[in-house]
Each structure stands twice: as C-alpha cells, then as structure tokens.
Write a structure and sequence with these properties.
Oligomer: heterodimer
Distance between the termini of chain A: 11 Å
CATH class of the largest domain in chain B: Mainly Beta
Number of helices of chain A: 7
Helix content of chain B: 25-40%
Number of strands of chain B: 6
Radius of gyration of chain B: 20 Å
Structural class of chain A: mainly alpha
Largest sheet of chain B: 5 strands, mixed, barrel
Number of strands of chain A: 2
Strand order of the largest sheet of chain A: 1-2
Largest interface: A-B, 47 and 41 residues
Number of domains of chain A: 1
Strand order of the largest sheet of chain B: 1-3-4-6-5
Number of domains of chain B: 2
CATH topology of the largest domain in chain B: OB fold (Dihydrolipoamide Acetyltransferase, E2P)
Strand content of chain A: under 5%
Helix content of chain A: over 70%
CATH superfamily of the largest domain in chain B: Nucleic acid-binding proteins
Structural class of chain B: alpha+beta
Chain lengths: ~230, ~140
C-alpha cells in the first residue's frame, strides 16, 4: 500500500526525460526535413526516418516486456508484472505506428497498402500476438494467475521478433532488406540520411523510456489504490 | 474468467493460427521467378500467382488511351511477356524489380496487380543526375 501517494502528475525525472526526448526529436525532424530526397522515391524517404525508429522501439519494448516477465517469475514481485505489461503496451503502440507508417509508404512505392508477403505477414502475426496478450490479461481475474499467464505469453512473444527481422533474408519478400545490414555489415544509405534516421531513432527510444517510466508509475498507483479499496 | 475477453482472446489465437499456417505458407514463396515457371508451366496453369523479376530493358509499351501496359519480366534466363491494364506506378521503369499478380493465359501473363520492389539503398541524386549506366549499376548492387 502506498499511503504517501504523490500529488503531482509527473515526477521530475519523467518530465526531464520527456523534455530531452522532445528536444532530440525536434533535432531529428530538422535533419529529416533538410536531408536530400532519395534518388528513386524522392521525399517519401522521410516516412522511413520514423518508420525504422518505431519498428526498433516496438522490438525493444517487446524484448523488455520479456525481461520483466522473467524477473516476475523469478522474484514474484507484482511491480515487474506491471512493467512487463507497460512495456508490451508501448510496444503495441509503436508496432501500430510502424504498420500505419509502412502502409503510407507502401502505397506510393510498391503500389499497394498491404500485401501478404513474409515481412508483412509476420508483422501481422506479431501485432495480433500482443493484442491477444492484452485480451488474455483482461480475461483472467486472479492477479497472480494473470501475471503468470501474461509472463508466459510475454516470453513466448519475443520469438516473433527474430522471425520478423529475418523474414526478408529467409524468404522472398517485396520488403527491402535492412538498410543497416547487421548481417553483412553494410550501410546502404548516404550520410545525411543516416544521421536523420539515427537521431530520430534515438528520440523515439527516449520517448519509450519516458513512457515506460510514466506508465509504470501510473500502474503502481492504480494497484495501490485497488489494495486500499479492498 | 471474463467471457467477453476470453472470446476475443480465442478469436486472436484463431487468427494467428490461420495466418501462421495458411497465410504464411502462401507468402513464404511470395513470387515465382520466370525460370521456375519455365521448368514446370503445368504447375502454375490456371492459378493466380505472383510473378517476380526485372522489367526487361526497352520492352515497356504503354498506351495512355487504352491504359494497356505491356512489358517483359525477366530473371536473366527466361523472359515472360506481361499484359496489364492500368497506369504504371511512378517507379516503374526499365530494370526495375517488379512483382505482378495475375495468371497465365497461354504464354502471356495477364497481370491484375503490379507491385514495385524497392531496394534497400537510399541515395541523394548527384549534381546533374545519374547516367543510365550508374542507375543500372545501382539496381544491380541493390539486388
């Protein structure tokens, strides 16, 4: 029980994190809008500057959800369960943004919003998995059983990440392979574009850290309140 | 157990199972190459398939009045003539990677949907633009 519930909406660390994220994002957007257009797709490349960052943070968030799920199963501390759920929720948000941004980009370049090719099919599975994760959480009323089932799901869910990432290498795909090719150690991009992409990626990662912290605090307060009511 | 959420959960599990076994199975071989078709044409007869390859240089014929688009898809070994109705996408050009959805009508592939395969390489246009030779090299590298 948290008797000394804080009154202010945001603690100072969260506020500072958010402000830094906004500042880095502003720089990233400035770089994105001053970077040259791509030789083939022109200014459409600007979608990529946030698409890649959003996809990376979705992967990261689902991975962190797994870490907290393992910690929960090990230590049985409800705080880890709350953080695992918070991270998965933010991951789902960024996965949604990745899909929407990707579709906006796909229509003018590929010619369609959506096609059932490996990268997109595995992305749909990944997204559906975490929608299922939250339905599972809502379906179970007993907090301890819910936390255990959710932890199992969060651990299972990360299997999707390497499949989704590697899909463009394993199977024939219309989706381009990674521009930052960590498998063949090559960067297929001009420097001003790399710079814009990396700064945006950093900004979106900072947003993730801030959101996770804020979401964790809110969830802790809600849990404390429930305990208080009982 | 809250029934409403449980039903939703089961629907999602079903959808994932469907995507994983049905959808993924189909999309794993997302497109067929011209030489794969040539090996066994009977396998792909009267079936809706995706044909993937490069647009053979100098084969694009487009009539803006009738919207008839004809070109040849090649993988360097086998050439397949494609007929498609509709305005070509902006990035459609010689040596561009394409995926055409449609079916074979004799030796001609009747396209219903034309998709462009974009490379993972991003570059600023140089001062004065690329020569066709440079563009060809870039596409070659991007494959």
């Amino acid at each position: 029980m948290n008797h000394a519930a804080k009154k202010q909406a945001l603690d100072s660390v969260s506020l500072r994190l958010l402000l830094v994220a906004f500042a880095v994002f502003a720089v990233g957007q400035y770089l994105a809008f001053t970077a040259p257009p791509d030789v083939q797709q022109g200014y459409l490349i600007r979608i990529l500057y946030v698409h890649v960052g959003a996809a990376w943070v979705a992967y990261l968030a689902f991975f962190v959800a797994m870490i907290y799920a393992v910690l929960y199963l090990w230590k049985q501390n409800p705080a880890y369960d709350r953080l695992s759920a918070a991270s998965a929720e933010i991951g789902l948000l960024f996965m949604g943004l990745t899909l929407i941004g990707g579709m906006m980009w796909a229509r003018p370049t590929w010619g369609v919003y959506w096609t059932w090719e490996p990268k997109l099919t595995t992305s749909a599975i990944l997204t559906a998995f975490y929608v299922g994760y939250f339905l599972l959480r809502h379906a179970i009323e007993d907090p301890e059983f819910r936390a255990k089932a959710a932890a199992a799901a969060a651990i299972l869910g990360v299997v999707n990440i390497p499949i989704n990432y590697m899909s463009v290498y394993w199977w024939r795909s219309i989706h381009q392979t990674a521009t930052f090719d960590i498998i063949n150690r090559k960067v297929h991009m001009d420097f001003p574009m790399v710079q814009a992409m990396m700064v945006n990626l950093l900004a979106i990662t900072l947003f993730y850290v801030a959101f996770l912290r804020i979401k964790g605090i809110i969830a802790a307060r809600a849990a404390a309140r429930e305990d208080w009511d009982e | 157990m809250k029934t409403k959420y449980l039903v939703g959960f089961l629907i999602i599990v079903g959808a994932i199972a469907y995507l994983a076994w049905g959808g993924l199975g189909n999309s794993l071989v997302y497109y067929v190459l011209p030489s794969e078709y040539a090996e066994n044409p009977a396998k792909y007869a009267n079936k809706r398939i995706r044909l993937g390859g490069l647009v053979k240089e100098g084969t694009i014929q487009y009539d803006p009045k009738t919207l008839e688009l004809k070109f040849v898809v090649t993988d360097g070994v086998v050439d397949i003539p494609v007929e498609h109705e509709g305005t070509p996408p902006e990035l459609f050009k010689d040596n561009q990677g394409v995926v055409v959805e449609g079916r074979f009508d004799g030796d001609v592939f009747k396209g219903e949907n034309l998709l462009i395969k974009h490379a993972e390489t991003y570059q600023a246009p140089p001062e004065g633009g690329y020569t066709p030779e440079e563009v060809r090299k870039l596409i070659e590298e991007a494959k």
